[in-house]
Specification:
Layout lengths: L15 E4 L5 E4 L5 E2 L3 E2 L7 E4 L4 E3 L3 E3 L5 E2 L3 E4 L5 E6 L5 E8 L10 E7 L2 E7 L11 E9 L5 E6 L7 E3 L1 E5 L1 H9 L41 H12 L10 H13 L5 H9 L5 H10 L2 H16 L8 E2 L3 H12 L4 H10 L2 E2 L7 H5 L4 H13 L19 H8 L5 E4 L3 E2 L4 E4 L30 H13 L4 H16 L4 E2 L11 E2 L2 H13 L4 H9 L2 H4 L17 E2 L2 H12 L24 H9 L14 H9 L1 H7 L8 H8 L3 H13 L5 H13 L3 H13 L6 E2 L1
Parallel strand pairs: 4-8, 18-21
Antiparallel strand pairs: 1-2, 2-3, 5-17, 6-10, 7-9, 9-16, 10-15, 11-14, 11-17, 12-13, 12-15, 19-22, 20-22, 23-24, 25-26
Helix pairs in contact: 2-14, 3-5, 6-7, 8-12, 10-11, 13-14, 13-15, 17-18, 17-22, 22-23, 23-24
């Protein structure tokens, strides 16, 4: 049993142990008793007890053991006004009984939890302040003495109606007055609380192996495309009548390097590319970047943001996407098919620290509603969340029952939330439960959007495997089209259907080039969802390599749009340009005032806070903010790397020490910051400025500062 310090150390001046009837031990302190956080075994309780595991629930209650005391395996928690839990309990003999409700108190609990007690045709209502300890100081709160007739049961209902904070429901207990008196006066011996089951001789069980992915051949696999065929198809679809300029080599290398590995090319990479005189130098550069370890990291960052941007962190837990990023980057670098990657995300189980693929389910807290909406939006490009509460008035056929049919695949999914570290969040099976439309009376079969259903009673893993298999099937063209549309949108600047995550049937879209979308989906399916093959195809086209000289609606997809760089790209570019270190401060120590200190923000985190955005957002809506400008202008770490004083050891200081030719310095700074050669006009402006300023060091600091703060530095053209 562990003691959780809930009071300042200065108050620990008088300590006595006092056992209570529940089998918990309370620490009597100056300032009031503080109970030890522990589990109360059912067999240690007197009277009649019904645990939450046997209660009837409405809504998405989740299991927890985060804080306080609880009966048996844990308690249930819900936040939101749409749930209830009903306990039915019957005494051994009729007569007067105390009705007692167990809950775990805490500062984030509801102060007016609705509770009713119904017996013999009469109902009594309560509002329980669950921020305060139960009346026995440990687990059980006495709701009063009730005379229970022979053959009658008591129904206790805990509701979340009208609440805004967390509501806790754990167990109910019936005690006769004599039983209550004995229970309160007869403590359990110290140390008789349940002992942990895991010991050095009994190590934790290894994580369960993930389900095996089996790719089924599509009935209509389609055909692969070549780059020239794709160019012709785009030209035909857009009815292009004029030619476009192709970007020069420097601009191409910066564009493709940013898109594939998330940073601008280094001067050495740029110099090697200039020296390549072959006709296949662009294709060679694409293949080299696809083979880079940074390719997986860059695209793992992208999909992490797609998933994370709309996830909600539970209280007292801080999501760490590091393990997930590493797992996803490895998948991309090994060129695992996109269908297999998504299948693994949807079917993973176990602790996230051991099974990073479980991050998607675990960080959504196993919530059936959120998982139904986000799975459809992210992996199918179909927004169904509006139908959670009512039929969607704007999309024909998207009914409330269809939404909850998808949610039923997650009816038995549970995510056991851990405090502080998200590595210990565990995805597992609730063991029971079906799903209904809110206030509905019929259990819904798990059913996909296209009507494929499975029988009721399936366990959690069988349900998720069935959903994942149907979703990633080559015969589900919507899955392939959603990937193609989203990645095309990131590379070219606009999806063929906009918004990129709202391409379902019956929706009013901005839609162009449907033939191209179909052909690219065919290519993806025919290649077994080979993501590198897809990117290689797109990047070898004239469409991708054109200059953005025209941007009318008619030719919006004929060449890549100028787009703003995200936080990861800006940070990687600062590292390449300035050698910016990623500094992480020490974590704040746990104190009585701050029991759950948040993780400190690293330099990368600070850049992400300023520059990151929802990847599902249209490029035109991505904001330029004052926070971004102030970071590049004033951040102390950035300024330290721009500082060229002899003792700074910055890249600029070393350059000025070794090079006297201002033209060479200008070329180097433009190369390292903007990955290009300055124009003759730019070189003259820089050299004139340096000549006019008395202090050479300060002048070049100003030049470097100006380049870092230019719009071009944080823009991909």
């Amino acid at each position: 049993m562990s003691i959780h310090n809930r009071t300042p150390r200065s108050s620990w001046c008088k300590v006595t142990f006092q056992a209570v009837a529940t089998g918990l031990f309370c620490l009597s302190l100056v300032g009031g008793p503080t109970c030890l956080a522990a589990s109360v075994p059912l067999d240690k309780l007197t009277g009649v007890v019904v645990d939450d595991a046997k209660a009837k629930t409405v809504g998405e209650w989740r299991n927890s053991t985060s804080s306080g005391n609880w009966v048996a395996a844990g308690y249930r928690v819900h936040r939101g006004p749409d749930a209830s839990m009903q306990f039915t309990i019957k005494p051994v003999k009729p007569g007067p009984h105390h009705v007692r409700l167990a809950y775990s108190a805490g500062g984030n609990r509801e102060r007016a939890t609705p509770v009713t007690v119904a017996v013999a045709g009469q109902t009594k209502s309560y509002k329980i302040d669950q921020t305060k300890k139960p009346s026995d100081g440990a687990c059980f709160h006495d709701l009063g003495l009730f005379d229970i007739p022979a053959g009658q049961s008591v129904v206790i209902t805990v509701s979340t109606k009208g609440t805004s904070e967390y509501v806790i429901a754990d167990a109910v207990q019936l005690l006769t007055p004599a039983e209550l008196k004995v229970a309160l006066s007869k403590p359990l011996p110290f140390g008789s609380a349940p002992k942990p089951t895991a010991t050095k001789k009994d190590p934790p069980k290894p994580p369960a192996p993930p389900p095996t992915f089996k790719r089924q051949a599509a009935k209509n696999a389609g055909q692969s495309l070549a780059a020239d065929a794709l160019d012709k198809l785009v030209a035909s679809s857009l009815k292009l009548e004029s030619s476009f300029n192709v970007i020069d080599d420097e601009a191409f290398l910066r564009r493709v390097t940013l898109d594939l590995i998330g940073r601008q090319p280094t001067p050495a990479e740029l110099d090697a590319y200039r020296k390549d005189t072959s006709n296949t130098k662009r294709a060679t550069a694409i293949d080299r970047l696809l083979a880079s370890e940074s390719f997986g990291t860059n695209w793992a960052n992208y999909w992490r943001d797609v998933i994370a941007y709309r996830q909600q962190e539970p209280e007292l837990t801080f999501h760490d996407y590091g393990p997930f990023n590493k797992w996803l980057a490895e998948r991309f670098n090994k060129n695992v098919g996109w269908d297999e990657v998504v299948f693994n995300m949807l079917t993973a189980r176990g602790k996230i620290g051991q099974q990073p693929a479980a991050t998607y389910i675990g960080f959504h807290q196993g919530n059936a509603h959120r998982l139904a909406g986000e799975t459809s939006r992210i992996f199918m490009g179909v927004r169904i969340a509006c139908a959670e509460c009512h039929d969607d008035p704007f999309v024909e056929g998207l009914t409330q029952e269809r939404f909850h049919g998808v949610a039923a695949f997650f009816a038995r999914t549970n995510a056991k939330i851990a405090q502080l570290t998200s590595d210990n969040i565990e995805v597992l099976d609730k063991g029971k439960g079906e799903h209904r439309v809110p206030r509905g009376k019929v259990d819904l079969k798990p059913t996909t959007l296209d009507g494929q259903s499975i029988a009721l009673g399936k366990n959690d893993l069988d349900r998720r495997v069935a959903l994942a298999s149907a979703l990633v099937s080559g015969d589900n063209r919507q899955f392939a089209q959603a990937y193609v549309n989203r990645v095309w949108g990131r590379l070219i600047g606009r999806g063929m259907i906009e918004p990129i995550d709202d391409m379902g049937p019956g929706v009013e879209h901005s839609k162009v080039m449907p033939q191209v979308l179909d052909a690219l989906a065919d290519h993806l399916i025919a290649s077994n969802f080979d993501t590198k093959s897809f990117m290689r195809l797109v990047m070898n086209t004239q469409v991708y390599q054109r200059d953005r000289t025209r941007a009318t609606d008619h030719v919006a997809l004929a060449s890549p749009a100028v787009k703003k760089m995200n936080g990861d790209e800006v940070f990687a570019s600062l590292v390449a340009a300035l050698g910016l270190p990623n500094v992480t401060p020490e974590r704040q120590k746990k104190t009585a005032a701050v029991r759950f200190p948040p993780p400190p923000k690293s330099t990368r985190d600070l850049v992400a806070d300023a520059f990151s955005f929802d990847p599902s957002m249209a490029d035109a809506d991505v904001p330029r903010t004052m926070k971004q400008a102030m970071f590049l202008m004033n951040n102390p770490q950035v300024q330290a790397r721009i500082n060229a004083s002899p003792g700074s050891d910055s890249l600029l200081a070393r350059l000025l020490k070794s090079e006297a030719n201002d033209g060479v310095i200008a070329d180097h700074l433009y190369g390292v910051v903007l990955a290009r050669t300055p124009s003759a006009r730019e070189r003259k402006i820089v050299q004139d400025y340096v000549t006019d300023i008395d202090q050479r060091t300060e002048a070049w600091e100003d030049v470097l500062w100006s380049l870092i703060n230019s719009t071009e530095f944080t823009t991909r053209k």
